[in-house]
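Thanks for the sequence, V.! I ran Nucleoporin Pom152 right away. Repeating your input here for the record:
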Amino acid sequence: MTAATITARRSKSHAASRALIPDRFVDFPSQRLWAVAIFGLLQSLKVVDLIQLYWTSHPENYGGSLFKWWCLDLLYLFTLWIVKIPWLQFSNTKTLVLALLVLLVNPILFALPSAVLSGTILQLLTGGVMGQQLAVSRGTTVRVRFYISVRSHLFFMSSYFARPRSTAKLNPDDQYYCIPSNEVGKREVMLPIILNNTIPRHVTLSRFDFDTKARTNVDYSQRDLRRATEVSQGQQGLEVYYIKVKKPGAYRLDSVSSKDQLDVRLQTSEAMVFTCPEATFTPISNDEYCQGMEQPLTMIVSGVPPLKVEYTRKVGTSATRHQIDNIQPDNYISPLRKQDHSSYSTETNIAMSSEDDMDWAASHHITLMFNLTLSSPTDYRYQIDKVTDGTGNIIEYQEPVETKLAVHPPPSVKFECDIQRPAKLLIGSKTANLPLRLEGQAPWKIEYEYMHPDSLELTQKTVTLDSQVSAIPVALSGDYKILSVQDRHCRGDVMYPSVCRVVQPPMPEVILSATPIPSQCTDENEIGMKFVLEFQGTPPFNLGYTVSKQEGRRKTVVSSKFEKIDQSRYVFEYRPSTSGTYIYDFARLDDANYKERETGIKAIKQVVHPQPSAKFSDRLTRQGLIRTCIGEGVDLDVELGGTGPYTLNWNVFNAGERHSFEEVANEARHTITIPPLDIGGKYVVSLAKIQDANGCSKELDVADVTIEVRQDRPTASFYTSNGEDSHMTIIEGREARLPLRLTGERPWRVLFRNADKNPDKVYHAQLNDANDILVVREPGRYELVNIQDAYCPGDVSAAAINVAYLDKPTLMVDETQVTYKKHGAFERRSVCEGTDDAININLSGKTHFQPKLVNIRPFIVSYDIAHSAHGRRDSHVQSSETIHAGLGRTRIGLNTHKSGVWRYTFNRLSDEVYTQSAVPKAADNYPISIEQTVLPRASAKFVTKGNVQRVMCVGESLDSNEAGGALPMEFSGRPPFSASIRVRHQGDPHGRMYHVQDILSTKYDLSLPHELQAPGDYEVEIQSVSDDAGCQSVRLGPEAMVKITALDIATIIPIDPSMEHCVGDQLEFTLSGVGPFTVRAIRNDATKQNIQCPHYQFNGKHEKIQSPFSRLSTIADKAGNFTIVSVGDQRNKCRSYPRDLTKIIYELPSTRVSAGKDTLENIREGDSGQAVVDLIGTPPFDFEWRRYELVWDNKHKRHSKGKVLESHMVHGIESHRYYISTSQAGTIEVVSVKDRHCQYPRSQ
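Predicted structure:
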């Protein structure tokens, strides 16, 4: 590659490399051509848009077009900056400059015409663009547009619109309406009227009554009509109104009067309002029926035939819907019959031939009959859902219209007895009950017959029963048959078994055979009796008998039994346990049918001598093993049998040794006593032999009793060190757990007492563990009284445990710093606001038995801080504080930042032991609180109204009355007061100090002998203040300083020297001096001239205006004479008085078109309209009027001005009224007017 080639490539344009579209796709000249073409196209479209705006004269569209072309031009510049076409590449700065240029040029093209038409240029020339100006008539600011805008002088316009004929049509959709019969005259129906190109003022409707065939007229004013949303049907001017009617009939439009007094053509139509259809059931006298019955049901349907009824039939839980169509009277003729009966159309109206043929439209009443077969035992419900008349009016019932029939099932009856299971009539009973099973509803009426078993005679009877489970009482045996049954509602069925037999069972009897049982010792003695019983009757049998023992004349019942026997033969024996004479009495016999019958058996007497016997009591044999303690004896109960007295032999076995004992027992229950057992171990007690009083002896073979003797006694003691008394401390409210050591066998019963509190009261505890504890909650000396284990009493230790409470933490206020008042309240000495202060409190917590724990730490103290203002009793809690103190003394800082009464109430005190908060209390048991009065700082301020700065003139002093009087001051604190005052000029770094003392009141007027020698700002500042309590304040804030400005004399010069002006002109003046300035003038009004300090006059009335600048600009808002009297500062001082400074202001001319109203007048083709122009001002007049195109604005639904169709200039009018005639549609508007002195708008 040659060097020349390399150099050529390096010299390639850097701009081409930055292009977004490389030249290999589109060459750069073509890209530049496209860019220029697009720019030219955009500007051409802009020119076309601008021409259209100029010709149409729509000022409201200028802003939208301006914004659109701003966006398009900026988008073009931004796109050009992105694509970076060579030769059209601009830097960021150049692009920004072009964008700003577009932002300036486009307003000139688009906003300038709008500004010219809307008067903005005029406002700019007159200064009104600022929005508000000072008005010379009253010295206050006013809106300039109220005085120079077009609408304020060129009033209203007159528009003429050629429109077609106005029409009105009632019920345009040919709908039918209805009113319920019970709401005629109450409920309103809205009938629509569609109006074309007119606004109604009065409407007259005629109503034809279907019943009376009379026609009446009803008048409606505009307020009776309800306007609906404008109808959009591709036409303009269509509107819908609604008229309220309350009665049925045929309605027609008789007349319609419009607001513009134009003729309204009535289109032939009617609105038919019928009586709404309805249906109901005829009430049924009886609503209770039996299954299978038939019942007629009547439905009455009313309305305009043909009618249709839809109803629901509910049988139990099953529901079915039904419909009846074409309900109408016979020979009924109606135009509705010509329509399709399959659907009732509401869009096809009916042509009426004459009013005599309107009988069909009256409401008809038609009766429908239903024959109901009630085949199911349930509720039948018939409910009307919907009724439709011949015109398509539909009534759907929200509240059901229904009738109900309750159908009951037939009752049934049957016997619970039959021939195989007969009812029993017992001997001696008057009646027997025949059980029945009934179905149905009470009461039941039953008819039955009776057949005698011997004569076969039949007898019929009737009985009434109230219960479902009942019985028929009968007095004779035989067969009973049910014939019929009837419950509360219906007759029923007789079920099987329907026949019941009544029988009479025989009485029970018993035969007794008794045989004595001989003794084994001697044949002469008897030991009991054997009985054999034979029964007759119906088992089971119950035999009641008693066994009595006779001792002389006394007779004692030994045994009384009631044996249940299921068989006809029964054998049993009875053997008494003691000797004596026994009587066996069999008194009562029952069987299945008869109760408490006598047996007829005589009492049997027997002398019995039973064989001797002995055994331990059942309690001992069940217990098995008897435990006892060493050294104690044991008593054993023995039950003896035979004839006493007895001789009883018994043995005691222990460790291979045998000890025999013999003793005499006189009673059948005897207790043998085992002597004290001194050796531990097991002992066996055995009964060996017994002999009774008859000498009959018997070797005994009965169960033994085993006795186990304990080797030791149980003990109980408190678990203490060295067996001595111990001490225990607890927190108040908690429990103390006293440790025990127990010996013996569980369970233990321990008795103990509190010797300090109540030594006579003994407590007991049931324990199961040898190392168990006693739980107590009260302090005192606890001692053990006694112990008992499972078997033996024991011994207790004399050592005791002393239980004491830990002392609660206490809080005490250092009494050297406070004074006690009452009810727990302490008072701290008063201090001044802002003075640091604190108070000491002492905290302690001691125990009785642990001297080392003198202070239990840390302590937690909480208190509420409340504040009340001076002189007020109510206080408000400001905050709550909590202190965690680690020592027995702590310090609490007191609030002194705000004056008033501060109260510190302690509401919580706890330590690491007593964690539950308690309220610390004083000696009188009231909560502790501390009160302190904080005296307010003495303060002072200047009392000024409005601004704190005063304006004075040079040479005045601070004690001069002309300077506004003394400076009022206000003090707070306790008088007398002392204050230090400094007066300083802005150029003096130190100033001069004044000291004022013995100020006895809180209000004071400050007068200082200080003269203002130089212009500028002065500061009068309170440096310090103190009161009688010594409370001093410095740095009192901005209210303690007053600024005074010393000014030179002010002057005023007019900028425009001419004397004559028009309303809306700017009146400007140059002010010199120190502002703000106060200018006074006089208005030439003879009724109000007695004002002492005039500033300026307008029509003889004195006014004042202020200007904070050296240039005063006002607007001539009213015609009259404006004279400047004086100028000064804002407090009317330092004034000058100019001479012959007067301006004459003339009113702007104005016009009113069509008597001051925007009118829209309709003219027919060939007619003409006349616009009246009223001219206000001083003749002669010149004015220009224009006719604009009348354009309908679909967006805002109104007419607006379009482009200018014609323009005319009228000169030299000497009168105040001018007439403009036109026969073409458009809007006539006056755009300018001129009189002898002024013109509007101003010439541009």
